[in-house]
Amino acid sequence: MTNDWEKDINSLLKMKVFSNPNNQPVTIHGASENLKCIGVGTDAAVFQSLSAPTYAYKLYAQDQRKKAQIEAQVYETLAPSPLFATCFASTDEYLVLSYEAGITLYDCILQGIHISQHVVNEVEQARAYIKSKGLNPRDIHLKNILLQNGKAKIIDVSEYMVPGNDFRWEYLKKGYEQYYHLIDGTAVPLSFVAAIEKWYNGQGKKDSYETLSKAFLKLLYKK
Hints:
The chain has helices at residues 9-13, 66-78, 105-111, 117-132, 168-183, 190-202, 209-220, and strands at residues 16-18, 27-29, 35-40, 44-49, 55-60, 87-90, 94-98, 103-104, 145-148, 151-154. By secondary structure, the protein is of the alpha+beta class. The chain has two domains: 4-98, Phosphorylase Kinase, domain 1, CATH 3.30.200; 103-187, Transferase(Phosphotransferase), domain 1 (Orthogonal Bundle). The protein starts with 8 loop residues before the first helix and ends with a helix.
């Protein structure tokens, strides 16, 4: 018996994904009438099936394919949990995932959509759950968290076997507690958010939270 998601595999494999230097998003070569691109990262692109819209496919860049089976193993370790997507199948080229509707917290900031304390608490619960499974909750940031029916859903688990703490969520949580009230309900310009993102991806990763918060306030009051 053929699964619904198998019908689009030939179309998926006609496309190629290539990584780019300097941590830039991947480039996609090719297209398919059966698949809609719904996201690009630095290692892979994600497509939704139009014929079976409850499924999504994560297609890896050719030089990043070793990460596919690592991520599949993470999903297997985390399952079952309502805090993460479901992985139905995997190869060394792609993952078949549940399509997760919602808006990223990044887009919530841009559109002035309220992010509740409950959502922040759920991310904290997810991090504790990840640790309880012997994994490392890295790379949890605004673009990797969906607001889905008022709840948090984490949509990228690819770095949970990488050691070390990148402090991304810790800094975001502190920023939420101290400064979110200044922008809550306000659509924040993309240029402002992109400036913070660019600064963090440059020198900011090496700085303390206090230095980061000063940079945020400096940019905020220039806005």
